[in-house]
Design goal:
The chain is mainly alpha-helical and 64 residues long. 45% of the residues lie in helices and 6% in strands. The longest helix is centred in the C-terminal third of the chain and has 15 residues.
Length: 64
């Protein structure tokens, strides 16, 4: 289960643009709206996503 979550974190794109047509933000790219709930939670900017992905690699013991 942890491996699956790490796989998903590492597969999350780092450069995403958000729009706010309603109360909630949405991805500017409609294809990204189909991503998993975990990946949607990582819409926090490329620097922060990169840090989380680096931590996931450490948990998995993979080179960066």
């Amino acid at each position: 289960m942890l491996d699956a979550a790490i796989d998903e974190i590492l597969a999350t794109p780092q450069l995403v643009e958000l729009v706010r047509p309603k109360v909630l933000c949405e991805f500017a790219d409609p294809a990204l709206e189909g991503r998993s709930a975990l990946q949607k939670q990582l819409r926090m900017g490329p620097d922060n996503v990169g840090r989380i992905q680096a931590d996931a690699r450490v948990l998995r013991r993979e080179p960066g």
